[in-house]
Amino acid sequence: MALIVQKYGGTSMGSPERIKNVAKRVARWQSQGHQIVVVVSAMSGETNRLIGLAREVQAVPDPRELDVMVSTGEQVTIALLAMALKGIGVDAKSYTGAQVKILTDSSHTKARILDIEERNMRADLDAGKVIIVAGFQGVDEHGAITTLGRGGSDTTGVALAAALNADECQIYTDVDGVYTTDPRIVPEARKLDRITFEEMLEMASLGSKVLQIRSVEFAGKYKVKLRVLSSFEEEGKETNGTLITLEEDSTMEQPIISGIAFNRDEAKLTVLGVPDKPGIAYQILGPISEANIDVDMIIQNVGHDGTTDFSFTVNRGDYERAKKILEESVKQHVGARSIIGDEKICKVSAVGVGMRSHPGVASQMFRTLAEEGINIQMISTSEIKISVVVDEKYLELAVRVLHRAFGLDQ
Length: 410
Ligand code: ASP
Ligand code: MG
Description:
Largest sheet: 8 strands, mixed
Distance between the termini: 37 Å
CATH topology of the largest domain: Carbamate kinase
Shape: globular
CATH superfamily of the largest domain: Acetylglutamate kinase-like
Number of strands: 18
Strand content: 25-35%
Bound molecules: aspartic acid, magnesium ion
């Protein structure tokens, strides 16, 4: 007998029919003798609908009241799933975050989990009940409802698995696992049987949207065995999805590159002819970070004649704001010849823990892009990834040729 936490996302809970299908799946697992804790999201679109409603009433909704409101999406689905289970003869009980007592801090709309009480859940599990917990929500020390940030049900699932010391945390979604790249761009993309936490983190932060980044961090930290699976596979035709493993646990020979990730959501700013002297990077980027804008890649060129060029990338949504701030600080303190911006760029990355022990990955990547005449505008690397910024119009081509060059097509 195993204790399994299963998390079902908004699409899996999207209609009464689908909720009944989830109930059948849960019942099958339970009938195999396992104890099951289910975490659910709101029905797809519901959280957006609620936020929209709030904005119609208050332009910037009060965070405390917004949490009271958006947490209702999950309160509906826990009850519906419990009913669906009872309807097929399975004893089930729903829990809101407060009823479990998922204790969080008080940062409304982006709260962090501090503690989870397991007592009540344990008693119900031992009595043979399926436990259904509302994802995305908790309660602070004053009893106020909090939420964990968009996509937070993944984190609820992993946190419950950690607290209950579950044997596995299964994330059911509308894809059947983690792929070597987006199959919409490369039809030859393959589902990975396993991927390490570190690779998954890179893939998630580089634009792959299968799991919320925080849940992957959490799972790595607490060593929760995490698996991504499809909730749409028919009975008897289920696959094992993708297992996210600790590197030291993976017995198989790792491929050098596990996947090609990309992000269209980037924009580049360049300051030309800034004085090449100490403090310049700080003067340029300080005001940007004070405005809470994330800077991703940074390049400073070799100085010549006392000046240099400085480029960095930001989220495309922050581009206009970053540009204004930059123009201000250049005018006031930094001094420069000019500022140029480019919103039509994207980032393409090769990710793989195998890179640590195999030199030459970068040069293979650069050669592959060169052979297609794709100009690389910026490069950044970590131990397990290489990212390049290229013109947006080359995104599909770059992903396709790199996927092939690293042998991911087979
Ligand atoms: N319902 C919440 C959202 O849409 C949480 C989740 O789905 O994970 O962000
Ligand atoms: Mg989700």
